[in-house]
Hints:
Low-confidence stretches: 1-19, 79-83
Number of helices: 17
Helix content: 40-55%
Structural class: alpha+beta
Number of strands: 24
Mean pLDDT: 77
Radius of gyration: 52 Å
Distance between the termini: 114 Å
Largest sheet: 5 strands, antiparallel
Amino acid sequence: MKSKIKTxxxxxxxxxxxxxxxxxxxxxxxxxxxxxxxQNILPLPEGDALDLGELPTSxxxxxxxxxxxxxxxxxxxxxxxERCLSARVEFKADASVFIDIDLRCQPNFDxxxxxxxxxxxxxxDASKNLVYANESAANLLGYSTAQEVLLQNPSELLHPDxxxxxxxxxxxxxxxxxxxxxxxxxxxxxxxxxxxxxxxxSPITDPNNVITHxxxxxxxINEEKLIEHRLIRSEERLxxxxxxxxxxxxxxxxxxxxxxxxxxxxxxxxxxxxxxxRRVSLPEVTVAEDRIREKELFDDLLQNRRSHYRxxxxxxxxxxxxxxTDAIVSAIYEDGKDEPVNYISIVQNIQQAKENEQRMLALxxxxxxxxxILSHDLKNPIAAVIxxxxxxLHSAKEGKMDDVLEMLNMIQxxxxxxHDLLINVLDxxxxxxxxLTFSPEEVSLDAIIDEVSDLLELSCLQKExxxxxxxPSGTSIKADIHMLKSILLNLTTNALxxxxxxxxxxxxxxxxxxxFFFSVEDSGIGMSVDQLERxxxxxxxxxxxxxxxxxxxxxxxxxxxxxxxxxxSELMVVSEEGKGSTFSFYLPS
Length: 589
């Protein structure tokens, strides 16, 4: 809408006579009044009339913004005839907009050279008001024309968080002595939604080095941002795999210091958190012996530029115990570098497998012992029984009854030995297969000790060894009757085997506290330090014959230790060569 310019009243002529400024009033129905008219700072169309749309674009934008927000603001824009206009825009109660324009001489800026640029160009004055936008910027922001962009407040073109970021960056650059910023921001599109754009913002200064404008070059990076987003998601997935892997995963630098470690590795080595793990290097938590072996593999990897090596090694837990692991260590090389910059280790806990392996080795040794028993310890007494039986039959036919009785006694001794050995072999076999169950019940100590004494009475008489029992009468105990009988029988048989003629064996039970202390003491030949150590570590016993060449397999003591442990106790041994042995254990009542 057009209106006549009112400029000829004496009052206004007098008021503006000595001022280098003008006053413009835009009413709510877009009538424009300019005082004084003689300044010729605004374009005047034919007919001495002025249309709002013919005012400078930034001035129109300011009018619209003021009407929308009912606010007061300052703006700067470029006018005609190389004059710069500085304006104060104020909203009044009658919905008119008053513009107090101050005139200053400034170079004229011709922004038209940016019109055909393929990149977006936005220019704001020193007060952050938009004064120019090219078509490329309009297209990037979803506007039909550049004029529509200029009607927007710059702060409304950016995501609120990014607008704050722009102000922060400007403040930082000013502190550094610069006003140039380059970053990625989310611009608000006209149709809604955000679009990632890269913006390079630089100041424009006058000859006095005063900033008059800011020019922003904006380009689309949606594709780059999408790729970056995918990379971030891919990295997040890799991090998830790294930290949630069931196997231990640890990343170390070229000096072996831990950079990152997942929870499985931290648990394996006893670290409460990854932060704690970063304080140490992998060699520090590796057993010294394994560290030496690994260094050979590590040196070979460096010398031959190998991709990885594999090693079974022990890590030292924070509480002191060690854990066997199977580790695959891969080198990470960077382009142009001959040596790895990092190492990533995939670590499997094989402690249980190692224990099973040791157990299998022990079982194989026991299996060999078992077959040795069958082939030697059983063969000899059975062969003796067969031979003695033939002689007894021959002597009976000839009527030599004294010889027959002697041979029958010898057959009985050999048969008892075979019987005892078979019982032990069967018990051992059942214990290894897990079919020998622990079944405690209330049993009489008198009955068990009497049964053991009766079974060994003849053997003791034949070897002239005195067997003494010392137990509290009428006492009962809760125990597995079969295991307890086997313990006492094996210990007493063992004592008899290694006690010389005229010696003594004492089976003693003492009431102590809330249980009973059992001991079998002999006056025999005793054991060496090496024999005691092997027994302590449950190593397969060495074959040793008794004082009268009685065969010994050592299997009885293995069963004794297992059966005592089944009762929640431990077998104790005190022995010295030439001074006898005492085997003891404690059982609760």
